[in-house]
Specification:
Chain B: Its main location: membrane. The complex is a heterodimer of chains A (241) and B (430). Chain A is built from ten helices and ten strands. With 241 residues, chain A is an alpha/beta fold. Chain B is an all-alpha fold and 430 residues long. In chain B, 69% of the residues lie in helices and 3% in strands. The radius of gyration of chain B is 26 Å and the shape is globular. Classes of the chains: A alpha/beta (241), B mainly alpha (430).
Chain lengths: 241, 430
């Protein structure tokens, strides 16, 4: 088993005739937090959706755990223990918190359900208090916690988070990122994080990639990128987020 | 004057006056002038009295609506709201309603006369169709306007199997269900990528295609002549005939009611099976996947749910129950023709599901009773029937916009039971 869990090789994705990704190369090692930062429309979310097979790579390869998953259907990719907290959270509004979490475990057997539920409730105690409430009645921060909790119920090897800080108060963002860090340190969970909030993301991540216009223009350690003058000028201007 | 217009009553008066003016403008052209054939050609006759009536009705109606219904802080509407029971009481009553209705249905043949039992059979058929469609529309959130197609497939399967192969009802019933489910999947494949309005249009077309094929394939289906002399069902091989049938076997006096009562219990059992299967499925992964699919398809895919299979099973299962109901319809009527499977039927079944509250099993029952039963009760009103019926539907949608039973019981509990009212979530969500 190699050290690399996920690797994209020259991935190109199109929406019709429009190029969204112009050949992406990136690696995620086991036990790492890797972040992709970039402006709106840079292709961050497309990268994530391409990994999951929601949009298809027209060229290039996606290798996960030594296996080519480029053309697998989405539900089979997810069965390989890649869990995703999609952009905009997308929780099930009319279903209760508990049912939402149960949906997360749909892809694996329910054998570990109680145990995993305990783990998620320990990470986000607020979800336990809200467990019989409808998902739609939760606050934005709670919904994001639910989305992450739901993804964790699938016992992932790789957790992919798409803009978990979107529209949340700074304090809540901090709390959520601390949980991600804890998951990574204590359980050795590999995390692939797509973020606009470059400051928080780069501080958290071991390594980062900067994406502009469908291409990766820079990469390096999280702290290293954070102190890079170009990154600072483009993404951290106007103070700390 | 302008101060007066600022008040609620003033604003309502102004609004009503505006509506009356618009009515006057429209009605004076469309109703006020009428052509009449007289000697020497057409003459124009005025109907100004009728126009005045219409303007008056619109003015008073609009005024009453804006004073009593639309605006929140007014004494009349508040008093009416206070009269309505609280949510807690409603859910307590709701727990009793189901068993009571079931008891009522089971005992109905003991005291009902023939007309009532016939009505019961009709209502139960629609309840079964409503429950079947509820899987597709209520649970999986796939708007199907062509549900009657599966009803037709079921009915024609039985009729044709009986006609060509002389098969009995009990053999044909599962066959009809399987064939309908098969057609459900055939419809399912091309519409897998569609949602909402687009899906609705394609399913509408599908319903019409089935009807038009039945209408025009004269050699096979009899076209507009339909199929007659469809065999009646037997009770474990006992026919409901005067000689050597059900009555003789049990030593009863022959009565034509036996068959009616038998049909009543047959559709009751079929409907209860539909309900039981749906309720069980809701608690299984596939049922939860349907509901999740209704909420958010992309989230479903990102959780590793095979949305293709989930949609196809919803279509197939919904269609299967439609097929069972169709076979029952054929055997009960003894005669079927494409006339029975028009778009109107689809619309009524969909209205039952929507008025009852999407996804609610009890709601379907109440809505069927109100819609089908009410339709019959108001039969004496002749022309006014459709008007009363329409007002009823508008009324339900004003006061209960999410349907009669709008709360959704969670399918899983750990510690406490608690259902959340539909009022807490905005309409159109999910």
């Amino acid at each position: 088993m190699s050290d690399i869990l996920l690797s994209l090789k020259g991935v190109k994705t199109y929406y019709g005739k429009i190029v969204a990704l112009r050949g992406i190369d990136l690696d995620v090692h086991r036990g790492e937090i890797v972040t992709v930062i970039g402006a709106n429309g840079a292709g961050k979310s497309t990268t994530m959706m391409t990994i999951c097979g929601v949009t298809r790579a027209r060229e290039g390869q996606i290798i996960y755990d030594g296996e080519n998953i480029t053309t697998l259907p989405t539900h089979q990719i997810v069965k390989k223990a890649i869990a995703q907290s999609p952009e905009g959270r997308r929780i099930f509004g009319r279903m209760t918190v508990l049912e939402n979490l149960q949906m997360g475990a749909a892809v694996i057997d329910y054998a570990h359900f109680e145990e995993d539920l305990r783990m998620v409730y320990d990470l986000f105690p607020i979800l336990e208090k809200r467990q019989s409430q409808r998902g739609g009645t939760l606050s934005g921060g709670e919904q994001q916690m639910l989305a992450i909790g739901r993804a964790l119920m699938a016992r992932p090897k790789l957790l992919m988070l798409d803009e978990p800080s979107l529209g949340l108060a700074p304090l809540v963002v901090k709390q959520i990122f601390e949980v991600v860090k804890e998951l990574n340190e204590k359980q050795g969970l590999t995390v692939f994080l797509v973020e606009q909030n470059a400051y928080h993301a780069l501080r958290l991540a071991h390594r980062g990639y900067v994406m502009i216009n469908g291409q990766i223009t820079m990469s390096g350690g999280g702290k290293e990128l954070l102190s890079n003058p170009e990154v600072q000028a483009a993404y951290l201007e106007g103070g700390r987020h | 004057m302008s101060d007066f217009l600022q008040t609620r009553v003033g604003a309502a008066l102004k609004d009503a006056a505006l509506a009356a003016v618009i009515t006057l403008l429209l009605a004076s052209i469309m109703v006020g002038l009428r052509t009449k054939t007289e000697q020497g050609g057409l003459v124009i006759v005025g109907q100004w009295g009728l126009v005045a009536w219409m303007v008056g009705v619109v003015f008073v109606g609009r005024l009453a609506m804006s004073l009593l219904i639309w605006r929140g802080n007014n004494p009349v509407a508040n008093a009416m709201n206070a009269m309505l029971p609280k949510q807690d009481t409603v859910s307590k009553i709701g727990k009793l309603v189901g068993p009571l209705l079931l008891l009522f249905a089971v005992t109905l043949p003991f005291y009902g006369n023939r007309y009532v039992i016939d009505m019961g059979i009709l209502v139960l058929t629609y309840i079964m169709l409503g429950w079947g469609l509820n899987i597709v529309v209520g649970l999986a959130g796939l708007l199907d306007l062509g549900y009657v197609a599966f009803y037709a497939v079921g009915a024609y399967s039985y009729a044709l199997f009986a006609q060509y192969f002389d098969l009995s009802f009990w053999v044909c019933l599962p066959l009809a269900g399987i064939l309908a489910a098969f057609w459900g999947m055939i419809l399912g494949f091309p519409v897998l990528r569609l949602r909402g309005d687009y899906l609705a249009i394609v399913t509408l077309a599908f319903g019409e295609i089935i009807r038009v094929v039945l209408l025009n394939w004269y050699e096979f289906t009899g076209g507009p002549d339909g199929i007659s002399r469809i065999p009646r069902p037997s009770f474990f091989g006992l026919e409901f005939t005067r000689k050597n049938g059900f009555a003789d076997f049990f030593g009863l006096d022959y009565s034509s009611m036996h068959r009616i009562i038998f049909l009543f219990y047959l559709i009751l059992i079929l409907a209860l099976i539909t309900n039981f299967v749906t309720m069980r499925l809701r608690k299984l992964p596939i049922g939860r996947a349907w509901e999740a699919l209704r909420e958010d398809e992309i989230a479903c895919r990102s959780l590793g749910i095979n949305t293709t299979n989930t949609k196809l099973t919803a279509f197939a299962l919904g269609a299967m129950f439609g097929g069972f109901a169709g076979a029952f319809f054929a055997t009960r009527q003894g005669f079927i023709s494409p006339e029975s499977f028009t778009f109107m039927e689809s619309a009524i079944i969909l209205a039952i599901v929507v008025l009852g509250g999407l996804g609610s099993q009890l709601g379907v029952v109440i809505a069927s009773l109100v819609m089908i039963g009410g339709f019959e009760v108001f039969r004496d009103l002749e022309d006014l029937r459709m008007l009363v019926f329409g007002l009823l539907m508008v009324g339900i949608m004003i006061w209960k916009p999410r349907g009669i039973v709008s709360s959704r019981a969670p399918s899983v509990f750990l510690k406490e039971k608690k259902s959340v009212s539909g009022d807490l979530v905005a309409e159109g969500e999910g």
